[in-house]
Amino acid sequence: MDDELILLNPGPAGTSKRVRDALLRGDMCHREPEFTSLLNRIRENLPHGLGLGDTHESIVVTGSGTAAMEMAVIGSVRAGRSALMVNNGVYGERMVKVAAAHGISVHEVAGSWNQPIDPEAVCAELAAHDDVDAVVCVQHETTTGLMNPVAELGALVAKTAAVFVVDATSSLAIEDPQPAGISADIICGSASKGLHGFPGVAFLLCSAKGLARIEAAPPRSVYLSPAAYLAPQRKGEVPFTPAVQILYALDEALAELAETGGPSARIQLYRERAALVRAQFTRVGLSTLVDERHRSNSVTLLRLPLGVSYKALHAQLRHRGYVSYAAQGKLAADFFRICTLGEIPWHRLEELEDALAASISAAR
Ligand SMILES: *Cc1c(COP(=O)(O)O)cnc(C)c1O
Fold first, then answer.
1. pTM, entire model
2. C-alpha distances in angstroms, 66 versus 43, 126, 203, 215, 217?
3. CA separation for the pair 322, 213 (Å, rounded)
4. Residues lining ligand 1, CB < 6 A?
5. Nearest-angstrom CA–CA distance, 68 and 233
6. What range(s) does the Aminotransferase class V domain occupy (predicted)?
């Protein structure tokens, strides 16, 4: 793996040899009993492996993480009701767009991109409307590396009839609090971030309240209505052709996660990586946007040094064996991102400092 390009992007994650090898388990028809075993094991290991026990049931879909976001929005709002959405980054914005695409009305709580949303603001908006069926929040805004207070929001929403939808795609097995510490009814995740699987499979983790809402929501999409998956998956079946090989890899990735100490050990690894690379960023003179108290363990949004374009810096870093990631939206011109997600040999992180310093000089 030493000579390989190290991916410092927020997904897809670099994978282990073990997970890559699982892709080669062979051909399989999804209408045969072997597939039922595979699906049952994954559906069981997702909530259990992420520390949820039997409080949540999973729904697995073939698609990128956005498929899970869309399923969650479609499945959480009954006809004629609305969603209350936190929007303080690109993924919150995407949630609003998903609702708009399905004609679901939205009350938006917009916030600054470098501040966690204020639970009081959500509380006030919730009190101002009596048609809210779902409160939707992104736990870790991958846009900026900003953490939102989902545990506090979950406690608020639990007192109401609304379901709490959390996009935890970039926080499962990466950030605290983990799902067991959040009163969430529908949690969105994908195989290719903290689980260290491949892109192509996403999932929901649903509480009893979340499942009841999914069954009460109208069928807004043929492919993405979660109710279309729930009944077949409970029988070990899928409504559409799944990405079988990506599921093999997810199966292996979940086994690997459990064998390496589960989410708490992985979160600790992410913390240690963040401490290592953030000390390097400071030494090479790179500044950040989000205050230390609100930052995730994986994404750091860094200001481009004076006179250095993202394109030039990316090319220099890539030449030295690292793939950096552009900033999104209004931040794209002045910032870039480094994300220490997935399988990365520790020494390659140690060597990042010299690569960064040399790349910045060369890009000027
Ligand atoms: C990566 C990510 C997603 C899913 O993105 P896809 O490109 O569709 O896989 C959703 N939400 C958050 C917060 C993410 O970081």
1. 0.97
2. 19, 25, 10, 21, 19
3. 44
4. 10-11, 64-66, 69, 91, 138, 142, 167, 169-170, 190
5. 15
6. 28-216
